[in-house]
Specification:
2 copies of one chain form a homodimer.
Chain A (H helix, E strand, L loop, with lengths): L1 E4 L1 H11 L1 H17 L5 E2 L3 E5 L2 E9 L3 E9 L13 E7 L5 E6 L1 H19 L6 E5 L5 H12 L3 E5 L3 H10 L6 E4 L3 H4 L5 E4 L6 E5 L9 E4 L8 E3 L1 H5 L2 E4 L2 H7 L12 E2 H5 L13 E4 L4 H18 L3 E3 L13 H4 L4 H4 L1
Parallel strand pairs in A: 1-7, 8-9, 8-11, 9-10, 11-13, 12-14, 13-17, 15-16, 15-17
Antiparallel strand pairs in A: 1-18, 2-4, 3-4, 4-5, 5-6, 6-7
């Protein structure tokens, strides 16, 4: 039997354990997995493109566990009342090939994206950082705010989004999270005095949300929105004068902000910093950029945490995702032997 | 919501509609899909290898529907009481990226493999064929027998397997299927007088289940067992004197019987025959080989049939495989707004 965690179950798990503990455990899982980067078999994602969007399968495995995520990207979905991105995924036992966990990853993708940003910022932002500008109040924005507050104590936010309704939703959702939130009239105003700048805009084009002039010395830029070819948020100048950190360079050079730079522009992979092989921030005056695009390892980490939590809490349900005849050579017998129904239930 | 068909549901669907109608509808679906081969986006499968086995993701899409299958291959599993192969998969809407169907494909893989063999044999075996040798009485054997009987009227079987228990299971499972079954002492005895020879052995090595001498003129060989590098069942000589048909040449040259032949050995793809672009059997005396390895298109066909049948019968259950907030930009609100639980249920 396979444990199934519906979207409902994932919500319940987070509510039950509480944001505080959930974020800490997730960042811990990510830190552990990034630190053992070499133990993963990293396969490029498979993408199926259509005029309306893209559907991807992202596989990853270590010696014990195989994982994959199904995820789409359909920019016109919100006009239909649907989300731009939904996701689900599975973990399986490498030794037998049997699936262990099937779970909604729509929420989990939002969680792991924010937690990875926090993992990076813990290594790259100035330790005393308390003020974060948030440019974009879409679906990911509150996840970023909640994670940064909980794990890093970033409790002053400066939010800007051209859509006032999105800003109202942001403020409403974070009302009881102990945050001081300043609404700003535009992006340049939002970044004033910010220690960390998080960009999470949705426009699928080469935008310049942050120009070189807007970001002062010592700032850490958490660039989350630019995550596919043709979609960027930072100016080339800003990238050139910053130290850039990425998840997996071959993927980020195609999908991230650094698609604007030469193919050999020096970048540091986050795991190298987590594992202590390379330095993170070196000086208080340095400008750092985490060019986040999302990587299969992060889905693996959040799936293994969900599996742990489901076990601890007894959450989810056991489902017959794959047939299980008592005699493995007698699959056919399952069908017309009514009395064997019990074996499948 | 996504329709989930457990292993249990798949069994129930087949029992309810009956083997007769199920096999005919599945062969029809396969025929329709092979005939519109050009309308599919064919992506190579992704394989993750480990010392114990392999885990694969097999994606495929047409303009309306994306599908993928998760499938493993672990030869040592039966010693643990587990199946060598289990599978599950999903269909999704290309226009929105939302998942439509999630289903056990362990049984469905067995069904589509046998139905594809029947589709090929209908075009390649002599029309009057009534006797089939079946070499190997493993999990796939009864599916082949049942499908050939139902769709092609092949009602005389000559079965051989070195394991007498496997043969007993074969005979027992097919007891009420209107078949005349002859148990044979070895493979050469089984093929005597057979119009069609089906090889479905499990040994993962270059075996010679059928040598050139064993197969007479006019026979159609349905070679199902040889399906990965290093695993073949037919002699090179037999292949060289036969007309060989495959699913998708680039894949079969790596995985199929023809891995024994030169990379440019002429083969015909099944869809070309189905679509009327190339001839199937040309003479009663010709020896034909269908070098079956299993292809993503077949999983697509069986998934779309299961979806149709589930709808007709009201089978399966609706599950929250992905989160569905009423405001697509307000994913965060799902978590701590208890009153919104209903939206997910």
């Amino acid at each position: 039997m396979t444990t199934f965690l519906s979207a409902h179950d994932v919500c319940r798990i987070v509510r039950e354990i509480g944001f505080e503990r959930f974020w800490r455990r997730l960042v811990d899982c990510l830190e552990q997995d990034f630190a053992r980067w070499d133990s993963f078999d990293l396969t490029p994602r498979m993408a199926s493109h259509s005029p309306k969007g893209v559907i991807e399968l992202m596989p990853i495995a270590d010696a014990e566990t195989f994982g994959f995520k199904y995820v789409n990207g359909h920019p016109a979905n919100p006009a239909l009342g649907l989300q731009t991105v939904v996701a689900f995924g599975a973990l399986a036992d490498v030794a037998t090939g049997y699936p262990l966990l099937l779970a909604d990853l729509t929420l989990a993708t939002a969680f792991r994206t924010a937690a990875t940003s926090v993992l990076a910022a813990r290594l790259l932002a100035r330790p005393e950082s308390r003020t974060m500008a948030v440019i974009g109040a879409g679906a990911q924005s509150e996840f970023q705010a909640s994670a940064f507050k909980t794990v890093l104590g970033v409790d002053r936010l400066r939010i800007f989004d051209p859509d006032p309704e999105a800003v109202r939703k942001f403020v409403r959702n974070l009302a009881r999270h102990g945050l001081e939130i300043e609404r700003c009239a535009n992006a340049p105003e939002a970044v004033i005095g910010a220690d960390i700048v998080t960009t999470i805009t949705a426009d699928k084009r080469k935008a310049t949300i942050l120009s070189g002039n807007m970001v002062g010395a010592g700032v850490h830029v958490n660039a989350v929105g630019g995550d596919c070819p043709g979609k960027t948020e930072l100016s080339r100048e800003l990238l050139l004068r910053s130290k850039v950190f990425v998840e997996f360079a071959p993927q980020t050079r195609i999908e991230g902000e650094i698609q604007q730079l030469a193919a050999d522009h020096p970048v540091t992979e986050l795991w190298e910093v987590v594992a202590g092989r390379k330095p993170g921030r070196r000086r208080a005056t340095e400008t750092t950029v985490f060019d986040s695009v999302g990587f299969a390892l992060e889905d693996f980490s959040v799936m293994r945490l969900l599996r742990e939590l489901a076990e601890e809490m007894g959450a989810g349900q056991e489902i017959a995702l794959v047939a299980a005849p008592s005699d493995p050579k007698d699959l056919f017998g399952l069908i017309h032997a009514r009395q064997r129904d019990a074996e499948l239930a």
